[in-house]
Every structure is written in C-alpha cells, then in structure tokens.
Amino acid sequence: MPQEHSLSYRTAVVTGASSGIGAATVEKLAAAGLEVHAVARRGDRLEELHKRTGCIVHALDVTDTQACVEALGGLDVDVLVNNAGVSHNDRLYDFPADAIDKIIDLNLRAVMHLTRLFLPGMMKRNHGHVVIVSSMAGHYPMLGSAPYSATKAAVSQFLDVMRLDTNGSRLRWTEIVPGRVATEAFGVVMGDHKAAQEKFLDGKEPLQADDLAGMIMFALSAPAHVNISRIDAYPVRQASGGFVYSG
Ligand SMILES: NC(=O)c1ccc[n+]([C@@H]2O[C@H](COP(=O)([O-])OP(=O)(O)OC[C@H]3O[C@@H](n4cnc5c(N)ncnc54)[C@H](OP(=O)(O)O)[C@@H]3O)[C@@H](O)[C@H]2O)c1
Description:
Elements: E1 11-15, H1 20-31, E2 35-40, H2 43-53, E3 56-59, H3 65-72, E4 79-82, H4 97-125, E5 129-133, H5 146-165, E6 172-178, E7 181-182, H6 185-190, H7 193-201, E8 207-208, H8 209-220, E9 230-233
Parallel strand pairs: 1-2, 1-4, 2-3, 4-5, 5-6, 6-9, 7-8
Helix pairs in contact: 1-8, 4-5
C-alpha cells in the first residue's frame, strides 16, 4: 500500500487516541508504517482502532503517572503526541472545583510527566519529536475557559522552554493550535452530544480531526533540519479577538 508520508521515526505514542484528533493521528501514523501505541481510557474504542490500524493499545488514564510508567516506560519512543485534553466552560465563579483539577491534571500535569518519561531515551538517541495539541484558547481569551485556557497557554510556554532545554540536540517540538474541530469534545463538555452538534458544529464548517492529523504528519515529515514549532489552524469562518467601536 502506498504511504502518504515518509518519516524518519519508527515508534509513536498518541494520547487521547480513542476519538477525534488522536484517533485520526493514529490512523495516519500507522499508515505511514510506524509502530503506534494508542493511549486512552476507553478500551473498546481502542480495540476498534487496533482492528483498523494494527496499533498497540493501552487502556489507561494518563493522569495516573505510575500507570503510565508501568505501561509505557520501557518503550523507545521517537514520537510523542500529547493530544488528550478536556475542557469545561463556565465563568470561574460558577466553575465546579473538581473540574479545575481534572483540566490541570490532564492538559498540563500529564503532558509534562509523559514528556519527561520519554525524554531521556530521545536525548540518548538524539532523535525524537514531541507534539502537543494546545488550543486557540491558550493564545486568545475565550469566555468561560479560564482553567482550560491557562493550561493550553502553559503547554505553549512549556514547549518554548523545552526547545531551549534541548537546544543543540536534534529533538523537535511542535505545538498544534486548533480552532474549532468537529469532534466529541463539545458533547463531552455539554454532556449532550446532539445538542453540542447543533450548537457548536452544524453549519459552522469546522475543521475535521483528519485535517489536524494531516498537520501533525506535516510537522513530523519535515526535513530533519527543520523544526515546525507551531501550526495555527482555524476553520475558514472562525476568528479570534477583535473589538468594535460602539459609538
Ligand atoms: N475539538 C476542538 O474544537 C478543539 C479545539 C482546540 C483544541 N482541541 C484539543 O484537541 C485535543 C483532542 O481533543 P478532540 O477535539 O479530539 O476531543 P475528543 O474527541 O473528546 O478526544 C479527547 C481524547 O482524550 C482522551 N482522554 C480524556 N481524558 C483522558 C485521560 N484521563 N486519560 C487518557 N485519555 C483521556 C479521550 O479518551 P477516553 O475518554 O477514552 O479516555 C479522547 O480520546 C484536546 O487536547 C483538545 O483540548 C480541540
């Protein structure tokens, strides 16, 4: 079967692989011939993905650092795609306390621990690429998203520092910054997938998960001397910020 992309990498770990951007990325990496480790909590979804792509599945919660060490710690990983993420939308004075912890644990703490887990091997081999899926909400204010936006801004700064920490090596660090993408994320936040589809996606021409997976593959397949540090991608009919004079 012809391969879409030619990559210098052999193994990859993708978090949040049971749906959306993560699942689409596993599909493309597997099609490009990599050994792909797909990580998420829903084992049934991962099994379906395994049947489609041959990926190796790890049904685990990435906020459980010890479980990640036990399941993944022995792997020589060339590519880590830190994609798993969660959101909740409320003004902070209405925000459930436990939602703040869940967002920080998954979107920030787990990202750092997983990166730290694979970094020594990448440094030793002088070969590796870490991708983080952040969000436009980490770069522009989004009403009701203070904890989510703060974590996404933090991973952006984390990547900037990692480029410095590993400067002089051949490691590469890429931030993918999506606007609205047609995934289950909105239904997860609202607790109602049909209502979320109607409110956030229908008629809005959102990006597709496959579009983002293509951008990740673009960054991974750049020539070895090129680090694609950041890709911002909006749907054509979405924009951030701006203000109008009212009179
Ligand atoms: N959709 C958008 O409009 C949009 C825009 C900007 C940025 N993003 C970012 O894109 C990334 C991917 O989201 P998506 O849009 O593809 O949404 P999604 O379809 O809801 O995917 C989220 C993934 O994260 C996994 N996950 C959640 N909690 C986890 C945990 N504790 N441990 C392991 N995996 C966990 C979920 O799987 P399980 O439930 O099976 O664990 C799922 O596979 C996120 O970081 C999100 O913030 C999305």
